[in-house]
From TrEMBL, chains A, B:
GO BP terms in the entry: regulation of DNA-templated transcription
InterPro entries xref list: Class_I_gatase-like (IPR029062), DJ-1/PfpI (IPR002818), INH-QAR (IPR052158), TAT_signal (IPR006311)
Domain DJ-1/PfpI residues, every copy: 44-204
Domain of life according to the entry: Bacteria
Protein known as: DJ-1/PfpI family protein
Organism: Aurantiacibacter aquimixticola
Amino acid sequence: MTLDRRQILALAALAGGAGAFETASAEAHDAQGRMPPLPEDAPKIAMLVHPRMIALDLINPMTVFNILRSNIMLVGKTMEPAATDVRIPIGATHTFDQVPREVDVLFVPGGIMGTIAAMDDPETLTFLSDCGRRAKWVTSVCTGSLLLGAAGLLQGYRAASHWTVSDLLPKLGATKVDERVVIDRNRMTGGGATAGLDFGLTLAAKLVDEEAARRIQLILEYAPEPPFANGTPAQAGPERVATMRAGRPWMDAQALKAVEAAAERLGLPA
Amino acid sequence: MTLDRRQILALAALAGGAGAFETASAEAHDAQGRMPPLPEDAPKIAMLVHPRMIALDLINPMTVFNILRSNIMLVGKTMEPAATDVRIPIGATHTFDQVPREVDVLFVPGGIMGTIAAMDDPETLTFLSDCGRRAKWVTSVCTGSLLLGAAGLLQGYRAASHWTVSDLLPKLGATKVDERVVIDRNRMTGGGATAGLDFGLTLAAKLVDEEAARRIQLILEYAPEPPFANGTPAQAGPERVATMRAGRPWMDAQALKAVEAAAERLGLPA
């Protein structure tokens, strides 16, 4: 039954969405612009969807993996579509028990209130811990690394997170690194939100090769020109950072509480 | 009845999604991290959703506008969720006749096969032409500018598009400009796909002020570090560009045909 359902989904995807990004892997198109079925050895990528996630954290790397022609699984605790910051619900294609035993990539997007809730959910933590133990790459963007850490997957690893919460990483046994994309053995974590593009392309180069990643960068015309130099706390300056911090004491307290509870469960020193 | 439906949607949005991006407009949060209702004068932004669109083209600017606390309307020909490149269907919140007479922003995302289909759809063209005539800003990302052009909204304007199709802009009466974000009077068009972040922040600064846009840039940690210098045809070099072009003769022919048909309808010289 599970197999039937997946086959139906796969067929629906091919009929409906595939090829919508015209320039995707251009050389793979047939004369009518259709994409052939995914190859058997397409990278298997399990991307967590959880309630109150940040849609952009998922969509940017997912677009990269899609153009790379990966076997993308959106994995949820249930098939119930997950609410997102932009109020576009995102449905899972697989529940936890439907994910293959071995995947190439486990990916966790951010979304602070959603991350906090998931950090306290035994089923989610068990899935991540189990899947992450066997995955070739264990990855995240934005606050997703807190959830990886809560699942015990970042102990002894260098990792990035959103600047507002990255100070909490050491409580989960990780070394906080203020870089856009941090690779430590088979862990790859991205900084806040938009780091998902840099992360996705970096991972694409590892999964296939640099040339594939370069082509995707050209397809997505990723030659960014931010209108201001204001994307990091250092660029923004102490006044703006202080203003933002002042607006989120409740949120910060929730994050700290969730991290401390996770650290205790993992038997880490306070 | 229309009003009731909108009220229900607005209430659902407030209960479910708002505040998921914790750092959104931090100073507006209350002590429990909840966002207050949108102010009466929140920018009204009509974002087209059309079948086979590129999800990323929509989500990146939408995230910016959401943090800016805008009144975002996802506008479709029908309420039927639109298929996207990543196979995440995106539903409309408003049909064409439910959009207020005057909006601050009309936005069109890209998605070449979807764009081509929409360029031949009288209802979509009529909506865009009508809404765009009264909108304060007429905008697009990626191939969306071809659709604006087909609706007669770019005649005599400078505009950007995805590099694979930007040569077609002059056939629609526009001047092609190879820049990341092009502003000409009240038209603001972005380049390919990922230009949506630069575009969104640039427009946020116009809609509110530079300080608001800077804060959003910090929230989204938009300090990009592309892993390669490969985001433009010039960076990628002639060989990669030729490979990509060679893979899409059918697609290019379709785009040309749609543009020529639109140009004829607009009475433009061939």
